Amino acid sequence: MVGEARPRTLAEKVWDAHVVRAADGEPDLLYIDLHLLHEVTSPQAFDGLRLSGRTVRRTDLTIATEDHNTPTDNLLTISDPVSRLQIETLRRNCEEFKVRIHSLGDAQQGVVHVMGPQLGLTQPGMTIVCGDSHTSTHGAFGALAFGIGTSEVEHVLATQTLPQPHLKTMAVNVVGELAPGVTAKDLVLALITQVGTGGGRGHVVEYRGPAIEKMSMEGRMTVSNMSIEWGAKAGMIAPDETTFAYVEGREYAPKGEEWERAKAYWASLRTDEGAKFDREVTLDVTHLTPFVTWGTNPGQGAPLGASVPDPADFAEDADRVAAQKALEYMALTPGTPLRDVAVDVVFLGSCTNGRLEDLRAAAEVLRGRKVADSVRMLVVPGSASVRAAAEEEGLHEVFTAAGAEWRFAGCSMCLGMNPDTLKPGERSASTSNRNFEGRQGRGGRTHLVSPQVAAATAVVGRLAAPADLN
Length: 470
Ligand SMILES: CC(C)[C@H](C(=O)O)[C@@H](O)C(=O)O
Ligand code: SF4
Hints:
The chain is α/β, with parallel strands linked by helices. It contains 16 helices and 19 strands. The strands form 5 sheets. A 5-stranded parallel sheet has the order 5-4-3-6-7, with helices on both faces. Strands 17-16-15-18-19 form a 5-stranded parallel sheet. It binds 3-isopropylmalic acid (IPM) and iron/sulfur cluster. [4Fe-4S] cluster binds at residues 351, 411, 414.
């Protein structure tokens, strides 16, 4: 065929490269390059395989880790019976179906979305799925990565493919650059407050602009991680030198000539000039300052320097009602400066902000300071390997000297599926991604923050930024 190829977006390029079967009026059948598993969403999928007498088609493209139910106070005993059953089931399934697994105590165990990138399993241009909504994290590498349900997990285990309805694309054009002390987390929290939790519904999003290009891979993962929190199906960032430098040399990264070939292909994974997105939004970060949530969804946020909003000030009825309800649950009074909000617990961790860079940033703030007497601070590395790297740098000593708890890797207090939970009525500043009612424990109240704000808050005892410390 003569003539120029149609300009395509990054997402379309990755999609097109994975279509196994396409037919009019039907979903495309996509090939899946990497399937990640954890204990929560895999048991029924394995049961299904067993019932139908099927095997795992590509054990080499499938890998499991234990994260949601693992304890973070020790590596030996899972005392919670529900958690133990969940984890033992995953271990048995992986053994029976010959799936690689990183179990508690293994050097690579950790939150699934921290494990994949750190092993170099996550690579640009791949299709990546996992029975977990925050699979969007891997989009930071220019992979098309999204969460799937348990029946889809079974389908991928059996066939290494997945039928998918046609792609809807969206661009987030980030204008301006982040001021010093303002982070990827602030950016994504501000975005969700701007567009609302349904703002990206069903779309594969691409984050673009100078602030994104300047971001580290860790920062990009924080942004992509929270794509699902505003309804997007996936959140991609075009791979560049930062991406290549991160992937190079990791255990599963291509090596030698293969590396050169891979890199040349990855460099082509950019949205073409003239390619059309179904939707575009603009986020201006020029005047962005540290951002926190005050409500019970990630779109109920405000700059730390602001006050708890008055529901009456919301133009839309639905927002007004939601704010009213959120403030009741959060026990907050309109007009209270956010800096006056005292917290009981600070949680530093999760697949949003539990990587080495996040721990370094928080340690920087805590060095030579003390966690306030009224505060319990948990530092939970996203993976065993993050923990080991942090210890090599002595970060654990900074945390423990400040009075924080230095824990083992896992999802921990990001969600109440393990012993790390808030007690009813307790309030946290948390670097995780969801502040839903009861997310961190029944009756617990969550403020989403960056690692820097988490650390400063731990010192002050109230929501604070490093600039508030003297
Ligand atoms: C348990 C799992 C299915 C869930 C998800 O899909 O995201 C969890 O990881 C979460 O963050 O809420
Ligand atoms: S750290 Fe939190 S968001 Fe990430 S996978 Fe675990 S529970 Fe889900």
